[in-house]
Every structure is written in C-alpha cells, then in structure tokens.
Amino acid sequence: MLASRVARGAWVSFALVASVLPLSCGERAGDPVLALSGDQNLAGRGGGASTPDDSQGPTGLCGACTSSSECGDANDACIIRRQEAGFCGRDCDDQRGCPDGYDCVELNDDRLRQCVPRNACPSPKPVPTLTKVRARLLARINEARTALDQAPLVASSCLDDLAQASALDFARTDEALGKYVKECDPIWPSCQCGWSAEAEVAISSYDLDWEDAVDRAVESRGTEVDTHFERALKDDEIGAVGIGFWLSADEVWIALSFG
Questions:
Q1: Does some domain include residue 170?
Q2: SS3 213
Q3: What's the CATH code of the domain at 148?
Q4: Domain total for the chain?
Q5: How far apart are CA 99 and CA 20, in angstroms?
Q6: In terms of pLDDT, which residue wins out, 101 or 227?
Q7: What is the pTM of this model?
Q8: Domain range spanning residue 128?
C-alpha cells in the first residue's frame, strides 16, 4: 500500500534561531506590549473583527492580525504595540528562540512570552498566485523524476483541492498529514480523486522568497529535507499529483496529494 510507505512522518521545519533576551513587564524602552485573547478584536484601534474560515491559514510571525486565533497555535498572540496595527507574535517559552531582530519578551497582560521585533515588523513579502506556485513546484518535481528516469507526474485539479485543504490544515494545526490520516486512511483505497498518498513539508522562510522555499522543499540537502517527502516525489507507483501551498509571514507549508 503506497500510503503506508509515503504518508508517514513527512514533516520538516528549518528555523533560524537567535538567543532570547529575558525582559520583564512587557516593556522595552517604554514600549508596552499587549496580548489580545482569541475572542478580542481591534475595535477602536483601526482594525475590525476577523473570523478565520476554512480558506485561511495562520498569518505567521509578524503577520497582520485582528485576533490571536489568526496567528497559529493557541500560544501565539496577536500583539498591539504603541499605535501599530496588530501583528502576530510567537510563543518562545519552549526555548525555540526567535529569529534575528526579534526578542523573547513578556506581555503586559499575559504570562506567555512572545517573539517581538525589536523595531517594526518587516514589510510583507510579495504573495504569488497559487497557479504560479503550482507550475513551478510541478516543474521542479518532474525535473527530479526525469533525472531518475521516472515518468513525470500530471497535475490533477481534484487532487489540487485536497492538497490545498491539507496544506491549510497543516498550517493551522502543525499536524502533518492530519487531513489524509483522518479522511483517507480509514477508507483507503476508496478515497476521492484516487487519493493514495500524501507528503507534507514546512519550511521557515525568514531569509527565503517563495521560489527558494519551493526549491528547498524539492532539492535534497542532506538532513534538511525530510526523506519521506523526497521519496514521495520519486515513487514510480504514482502518476498524478495535487499541490497545496500556504505562505505566512515567515513560514511555508506545502502538501502534495498523490494519486
């Protein structure tokens, strides 16, 4: 069963880690930092309420937000500082550290410590169209397969929809292969669209544009690329692929649904 060989443990994350600075009281040079709980919005602060839906993933570190529910897992907070618009922090109590240019600070109204930029958040990166991403990723996948004398994979719009939903599920939950395991594993091989296997990868992209992130996901770079993901790209038992992609402010989630 292809699914049992491919769809297990296909996850990797590349993180640039800097040392954290212990600061107290949520203040840094007079800059108060406030955490908003998941059910608060920026009413009166220049923003409005926002309710994430099934078409949205997290905005990621320093991404725009109106509530903490948009920022990632339950420990990531939507932050207000001075008159800035809301931006997402990232929980740093687990010693993961923060990227260069960020400090791990306490919030005025929350015990969780968050990665917060020392200055302003960087300008958002350009967001590509999903069509453009899929074309580049499929081309890179097929280059790798051709080099190994494997037949190229064909795109499938049906599998694309499943892959996109998988990428968003992965981005929201950090649970690799969650959608596949919940929906296809129990009924395989009778899954919709001929869905038979899944591979997913998450790449932190503090210093990458989206093209570099795509290339890093496909290329073999020692231990940087999950071997399950790489093997799935080269399997001779698959013929079609759907591609899902979600780009936050600092991380890329890619899902490949195979048929």
A1: yes
A2: helix
A3: 3.40.33.10
A4: 1
A5: 9
A6: 101
A7: 0.75
A8: 2-14+124-258
